[in-house]
């Protein structure tokens, strides 16, 4: 079967494709927030991935998490695979700051505020450029 | 510096030590729930780990997540690194079931109910034995 994003993920903005994962953007200006979605059909959570794919996913999480911390002010990073409502494996990678809208609670199901259109385009472009630069490090690719 | 669990994690029940991570038990009978804590000093989130440690952590998450799904009824697994309140890297690995106390929301900061003492001891022993059996698979160690 050919891989396809489920509708809840397909409607998010695309940033870049890595070797295994597609990186998507969460349109919530309260948090710098992206997703990694491994392009494997029928994968509901990580137990559906081979160990080899899991290790590649960790390399890609490492790359994206590091990029996000270099681009955005943060006190902590949150990395999570939940998928209760959207059962296609997607890894949340986001930056948290003390005093943000949900601090110190979690962000899921809580505050959300869309970016102004211009700022969204610029933020996606900034993340994409930084990921492309980081991909020059052969440990990640 | 020598590694030490922070107080919020030190008070949890110990299950087993893997090569990199200590596996701890969450005393909440609403969810089969464990933590992996890499024994590295001063690590607040995964960006503090070397890529080699990250890959080993993924092997250990794979082992523990698979063990949990073989032992407990579940519709989904949740794997998350948050650490807003407890800034020592710890990976939540838990089983979710449709209709559970917080379904389909997340579990953090929500419902909790301690195990009866006997059932806690038995559950920890069951998880430990299953992890020991899984460790005979050389891919994980």
Structural write-up:
- Two copies of one chain form a homodimer.
- The first copy, chain A, contains three helices and five strands, in the order αβββαββα.
- By secondary structure, chain A is α+β, with helices and mostly antiparallel strands.
- Chain A has a single domain (7-134), classed as 2-Layer Sandwich (HIT family, subunit A), CATH 3.30.428.10.
- In chain A, strands 1-2-3-5-4 form a five-stranded antiparallel beta sheet, covered by helices on one side.
- In chain A, a hairpin with a 3-residue loop joins β1 and β2 (21-25).
- In chain A, α2 (51-71) crosses α3 (117-134).
- The first copy, chain A, starts with 6 loop residues before the first helix and ends in a 7-residue tail after the last helix.
- Chain A binds chain B through residues 44-47, 51, 54-55, 57-59, 61-62, 65-66, 69, 76-85, 87, 96, 103-106, 108-109, 139, and chain B through 44-47, 51, 54-55, 57-59, 61-62, 65-66, 69, 76-85, 87, 96, 103-106, 108-109, 139.
- β4 of chain A pairs antiparallel with β4 of chain B, so a sheet runs across the interface.
